[in-house]
């Protein structure tokens, strides 16, 4: 699956469009030919959140299964104002009278089954009880404040289609249909590693010229939030033979995600190591800031995605490329990264040629204004922590001014179920 999208690293200029490919083209090449993983399981409904539905489901009975009161009020046998004779009170779950006769009314609480003879339910706020226990009610249309049997889902109608990634909304619908377990695809298995002689595991004592690896904890959390089973292969040195050996031993995975070692220098060995391990891949220069270099390929059955080592670039690359790759492998359609229209609170000078993502915070006000946090830098994590999300600027945009429109991606949407 060698790509013809981009020239070699030495032929690509850093901030000029020639030689760079768009994010959309790179993502299309990455996803070309990717098919869902095989295998499925049946899991309890309580464990189904985040899993991908393996088969379509239909309702075995109507939802709701009977006519129900939509409000606390009084079930009436006619459309007039009464007076009506009250003949009982029925909360949800109780059995009402066999039949309510003309001129009679019954007290019904929300969710109560509608007794035969009741044609509408008057909200209690619009009713009054007169002397002698007689009820006066407003004039109602037939069926008012009644939830009809099957109005949500008819018996035999589709509940959910295969390929949906289940979230709390879907679980509620399945529970209402009486399902206690569901068929799901097996989880996508992803191997994760970092490469770099300068990297140390979190918690290890710092030594001269070394830093702690922040990418694996970040990427592991993001990939797991996408529904994958993540296996940490650890830190690898900048040695082609060691990386090739680790890759060659990473059998049984559906995807391999790595960071570091993709810029194209003499110390960057991920692409060469992939080929040495028996895989194939290509280096691509993307019109993206941060995160221009990207390597993707295949090793056995595993799709490979190698991201830049700087953490902001790795995060942006994971959101733009790893998440849609995992979605396709998991058997559901990748969602486009949907942004909110926002205005810039302050502008900055920039060169056109690359699509740019930057940490941004929200300014309070009637309209959504966002401001870039801190000075630019793909290795700086504190702006990410201070930000509310990422703003996106199109590749053709030059110098930006306050009030210009951008797209804004809140982090709660980026990192939640997708």
From TrEMBL:
<keyword id="KW-0500">Molybdenum</keyword>
<keyword id="KW-0479">Metal-binding</keyword>
<feature type="domain" description="MoaB/Mog">
    <location>
        <begin position="191"/>
        <end position="328"/>
    </location>
</feature>
<keyword id="KW-0460">Magnesium</keyword>
<dbReference type="InterPro" id="IPR008284">
    <property type="entry name" value="MoCF_biosynth_CS"/>
</dbReference>
<dbReference type="InterPro" id="IPR036688">
    <property type="entry name" value="MoeA_C_domain_IV_sf"/>
</dbReference>
<dbReference type="Pfam" id="PF03454">
    <property type="entry name" value="MoeA_C"/>
</dbReference>
<keyword id="KW-0501">Molybdenum cofactor biosynthesis</keyword>
<comment type="pathway">
    <text>Cofactor biosynthesis; molybdopterin biosynthesis.</text>
</comment>
<keyword id="KW-0808">Transferase</keyword>
<dbReference type="InterPro" id="IPR005111">
    <property type="entry name" value="MoeA_C_domain_IV"/>
</dbReference>
<dbReference type="Pfam" id="PF03453">
    <property type="entry name" value="MoeA_N"/>
</dbReference>
<protein>
    <recommendedName>
        <fullName>Molybdopterin molybdenumtransferase</fullName>
        <ecNumber>2.10.1.1</ecNumber>
    </recommendedName>
</protein>
<dbReference type="InterPro" id="IPR036135">
    <property type="entry name" value="MoeA_linker/N_sf"/>
</dbReference>
<dbReference type="InterPro" id="IPR038987">
    <property type="entry name" value="MoeA-like"/>
</dbReference>
<dbReference type="InterPro" id="IPR005110">
    <property type="entry name" value="MoeA_linker/N"/>
</dbReference>
<dbReference type="InterPro" id="IPR001453">
    <property type="entry name" value="MoaB/Mog_dom"/>
</dbReference>
<dbReference type="Pfam" id="PF00994">
    <property type="entry name" value="MoCF_biosynth"/>
</dbReference>
<dbReference type="InterPro" id="IPR036425">
    <property type="entry name" value="MoaB/Mog-like_dom_sf"/>
</dbReference>
<comment type="similarity">
    <text>Belongs to the MoeA family.</text>
</comment>
<comment type="function">
    <text>Catalyzes the insertion of molybdate into adenylated molybdopterin with the concomitant release of AMP.</text>
</comment>
